[in-house]
Structure formats: C-alpha cells, structure tokens
Predict the structure.
Amino acid sequence: MSRWAQGLGQLKKYPSAVAGLGIIAFMVGLSVYAVIAVPYGEALDKWRGGKHWQENPINAAPAWTNWFRRENLPSTIIVRSEETAVSRDTFPGGRRLRMVLPFEYGWSVFPSEMNLFLQARFREQEPFVRMTWHTPDGRKITLGGRRVIADDRVSISQDWDLERRLGDVPHVALLADPDAEGLPRVLKGRYELEIEAILFEEDARMEASFVSYGRVHGRAGTDHQRRDLIVALLWGTPVALAFGLIAAVGTTVTTLVIAAAGVWFGGWIDALIQRITEVNMILPMLPILVMVGTLYSTSIWLMLGVVVAFGIFSGGIKMYRSMLLPVVSAPYIEAARAYGAGHGRIVMRYMIPRILPVLIPGFVTLIPTFVFLEASLAVLGLGDPVLPTWGKVLDDSLREGALYNRYYYWVIEPAALLMLTGLGFAMLGFALDRIFNPRLRAV
Amino acid sequence: MKAAEAESHKALMGRASIWQDIRRIGLYTLVRLFGLFVTVLVGVYLAILIANMGGRVDELRLAQIRSTVSEAVRADRAFFDMPAERRNELIERQVKLEVERLRLDQPFIVRSFDYLYQAIRLNLGRAEQMHSDAGSREVYDIIVERLPATLLLFGTANILVFFTSLFIALYLSRRYGSGLDRAVIGLAPTSAAPGWFYGIFLILIFSFLARMLPPGGMVDAPPPEGRLDYGLDVLKHMILPVSAMFLSSIFISIYSWRTFFLIYSSEDYVEMARAKGLPAGTIERRYILRPTLPPIVTSFAMMLIGLWGGAIILEQVFNWPGLGTLMFRAIGHRDTPVIIASVVIFAYLLALTVFLLDIIYAILDPRVKLQGGGGK
C-alpha cells in the first residue's frame, strides 16, 4: 500500500498532474451540482423542448459574450399583465379590460423577435382583443385585433400584414427611429403595448405577457429550439464522466482478468483467448456500434454495453499477457501453490495486483477515449434519444449549420467541455505513467 | 584452387540463403493469409449474427424479394391484361417460390452460412434507398465508388504522421530535456481528442474566420477542367482534413516513439557503438532504428486500425465523399444492407492492414519464424 501512497505523493511534483486533478475535481463538482440543481426527470423533460422555452430567444449567444462586443446585444424583456395595472369595467354580459405593458428599450441593436402570449379563460364566447403600440415620441401604431383562443400566441414579428404596413419587419419597424436616414436605428426610451380586451362572460379572465426576444441569453445561450444550452452542458458532465468511467473500468478489469486467466491456465484456454482477440481486432468497432444503433436502439446504456463487450478482447490482452508471463514463474506464485491456493485466488490475489500499478495510467488515459466516443456517436446521429449530452449539442449545432451561421458559441461550448475533460484525464494519465513505469522515470 | 572452391561455395550458399529467405517469407505469407482469412470469416459471421439478432436481415431479404418479384411481374407485358387479383396471386406464388429457392424457410443457423458465403464473396445485395453516383443500386458498386476517396485521405494522413513523428522522435531522443522536447511532452495529452474534433476547429478558423480553405468536400463545384487543376483542387480540399488527423495523432506518436528510442538508446550495445566512436547517424540507423523497427511497425498498425474507426466521423465533418460519409447517409436512410456491407468492407480493410503489416514485419524482423517450415 505504501507504494501507492508514495506514487500519489509524487504526483505533486508534476504540475500537469495537479492541473489534471484540478480539472477532474471541477468536472466532478459540476456533475454533482447538475444532478442536484436539475433533477434527472426534469432535465429530460426540459430537454424534450416545447412550452418550457417559449419565452427564450432562438439561437441567442451567451450573455457574457457582450463583454467582448463594442455594442451590447439586447437581452430578453418580458412584461406580464400580472405585474402591471389593469383597468376593468363591467358592462351587461361582459367586461372590458385595458392592460398597458410598458418596457424600457435602451439597446441600440434591435431584438430578434417579438411575441405576445395571451391566456384566456372562458366558457363559450371567445374574447376579443385590440392592440396598440405607443412609442416614446408619442406615435400610436395599431397592431390590429383578433379573437383569442384559450392559449394564444400573437406572433408580432410574423404579422405579414403589419410588415407590409410598416415597411420593415415588425420587431425592427416598431422600435425604429422615424427620422433615421438609411439603415433603421433604434429609438431608445419607454414603449407601451396597450391591450384592450372585451370579454363576453362575467367570470371570464385574461392574462397577457409580452416578450421582446433578445440576442443574448443566460450563461450558455440557446439553440434552434429555444432550449437553454446550460441544461445540456450541465447534464452532459455526469453523463460523460459516467460513460467514460464505466466503459474504462468495464473493459480494463475484464480484459485483465481474462488475460491473467489465459496466462495461468495456458494451453487451449490461452490459445482460444488469443484467437478471439485476433478476430475482435479486425471487427470494426464504430461501424458495428453504428449497426447496433440503427437496428436496435441508440440508448446510451446499450451503446455502453456494446463498447465494453467489444473492448474486452482488445489489443490490451496481448499487452497484459506479455506482462503477466514472467509473473507466472515468479517464486511467490510457486509458494502460493505450495500452500494450496486455488486457481481463482492465484489469478485474482497474486497475479493481477502485481501488474496493477502499470495499468493505472493506461486506464486513466482510456477514459477520455470513451468520453469522445460518446460524442462521436452523437455526432453520427446515434446519440441517446432522451439524455442531454455534449455530443448531442455538438450534433445539433453542426446539423443546423452553426459555423456557417456564425453561432460559434454553440459549437465551442460543448467542444471546450469535451476538450477540458479529455485534457484533464490525459494529463493525469501521462503523469501517472511516468510515476508508475520506472523505466520512463529516468527519461 | 582451394580458394576458388571456397568462393563458389560461398556464392552457392548466398543464393541458397536468398532462396531460403524468399521461401520463408512466402510460406509465412501463405500461413498468415490463411489465418487472416479464417479470422475475417469468423468476424463477418459475428457481424451477421449481431445484425440478425432481431431477425432484421430476414425481413430485409423478404422485402427485397417481394419488390423484385412484383417489379418483374408488373413490367412483364404478358401479364398486362391480367386483373389485379390474379396478378397479386401470381406475385404471392412467385414470392413463395423465391423464398423456397433462397431457403428462407430454413432455420437461421443453416442460412447464416449462406449469408456468410455471400458476404465473403462481396455479393452484398441491393440497397434499399441509396444508389451510387453512377446510378447503380448494387451495394457493391456504391461502396467501391467511395473507397478510393477514403484510401486517399487516410493513406496520406497516416503516412505523413508516421514519417514526421519518426524523424522528430529521433531528433528529440538525441536532445531530450530540451525545450522542444518538453513542449512535445506537454502537448501529448491533446491527442486525447479525435481528429474530427480538431476538424471542427480547423473549419471554424480557416474556412469561416479566415476564409482561406474550403470547409469540406473533395473538389469545387463545378470541378475544374484538366487533370492537373483537378489534382490541385483535391489537394486544396485535403489540407484541412489531413491537418486535423495530423494534429490529433502527431504529438502522441512523437511522445511514444521518443520514449521508446530513449529506452533503446541506453542499451549496452548502443553504448558500445558510441564508445567505438561511430558517427551519430550510423548509430541511429543501425543500432537504434533497426532493432526498434518491428515494434514501431506494430504500433503503426495499431494506429491505423484505430484511425479506420475515426474515419467515419472525420469524413462526415469534412463532407468527404468516402466510406464514412456513405455510412452516415446510410444511417440517415436506415439503409440496412449498406450498413451491414460497410461493416464487412471495414473488416476486410482491417484484415488487409493487418496482413500488409505482417508482411513488412516478416521482412524487417529476421527472427520471425514459422513452426515446421522455412526459417533457419
């Protein structure tokens, strides 16, 4: 045991090992935070998309990118009728509501989109609304009127009629300075959206919320489905670590036990293991994974199972075998036999522990391989159908042409996390290699 | 007199040893070829078993038979006047006959060997939806059309990585501990990321930020006239994918070979050669490189085998029209015959890689012996 403690003590001398350990600790911390902050079920539910995200902009960069910009990009503004004064007057057979949704617009860049969400509760007769836009310089622009169904969305930006009337896309034209020459310029100041609603039932109710979608959002930005990328980036961490760790442990341990058994029993068992390894080496792992993913299921756990199954009889067996061969004839093994140790005991307690230190570095460097394998599968479109992972974010971004559309954050965020994880384990592994393999220490 | 006799004897011996060498290598090749063939056989059989676990291959074949038969019946002028019901009956009967002919009514175990035979003969069947650029629906044609592009890209990148890292490693082993050496050690962990990953960044930097190189594809559209222009254009498109592969594997291979050379250059016979005052170049070539070549070749083989796997995604990222992109499209179309055929082709390619390296190994290492045959 002292050999282990000694080895670990030596780690301190390698700055790369310390950095690697730091990165790994950070990743583990992030995983724990992810699992606590967003429970599993909630993460899956959110990542499925839909209504959760209707108040998020599409493809907005992270908010911190504003630090590097000369001109700050707008963030999202949400004004709800619950938070503002609503005047009501009742008339026979119904009520009239007048809601004013005010907001301050101080950016010089136009928002990316504008929507009005109306939630009406009524029994039969649909309410009617009329919307008017008030600009800071006192102009009034009518946005038209409409009947409201239960959960209604008024897409101001996609109102073609309005666009023709104003001469530009509504979310630009409504905020533009009328005196500006050439390109439209934002008229900064206090805007108001006035909603007049007529409800035809005494107990009918209505709420409204106006959303001016920004061009930056949150800590991680959003994707093409308005989903907040932070969910996937956070949850990708435990998934990646678990996948890498389980795959690495699964393959290394079983391979080691099989190699040791082959060496110990020798004869036809050894020969059989050797032949299986040779067959397995010409089996193309990724195409077979692709085949399994296409024909059966792309569940990450099935993929993990296949990876481990194919990793067992890998080239590693040959390496371990060559390391174990001299061990078999060592005197202490003979002594163990003399006192009557069984086959299992000799393999598990005498042979394997002997070469374990040499294997630890390889094991650590193996983890990132599997982390990247998961990403590779996702980029091939064989990512887990429900789990949010880094690979899937990367896949989405590449499919949606993120590079072409200059949504660089969308590619860089998952890629940076992948690279960080890979580097963390690789740096630790390389340092361990130099500590536990004495032949390398001198060089 | 005696001297002349000795001379001729020596010449005879020399010729005999050349013959012996050729026999040795020939026999070795044959045995390895046979061994690899058996290995491929078992590997492809396993792939078939995996593919057919849910009975998917059977379903596919049934669907294929049905479509060919109904096409044939519908296209036949003799049956044009036939009422629809009679025609359907005819189709059903034909399908049944075909099923019996192809022995689809037999248990899977029996048929699986038939599949194996077809796959080994590269009789890969027809694609469900995809077709080759020339318009053929045969899976074999589709794959063969894509193979050269894959071989070109991966051959270039691997050879480049192999020789560059070899030379740099030799250079560093002479100057270990220098700044450059430390830099390479420090950069080695970056090889944890696969080539396609670097590819994304290279595309980002050189195609979108700097707009110097094309982000993907193999030639411009429309392709340039003339062989030279065409070749240059392909070369231009190869720069980014090759650099991506190069970046992802260069540091780790330099690192591992440098370590390897360092271990070997502390052997006694190298020290002896140094003590004799032999020039550094000779020591490197004869005393370090020669004995370490077989393991170098082995590690090169391992790298090649690993790279075949990464090929699929790298090609996809760079839109390179090779086997990987084909496979990616096949996944999109859920075109199972193409996917299974790609597995078979990849198995062949891997076996070929292993075989070629075995031959090189036999040439490099005179100690490779065969039980019972040739050898010394």
Notes: Chain A touches chain B through 54 residues (CB under 8 Å).
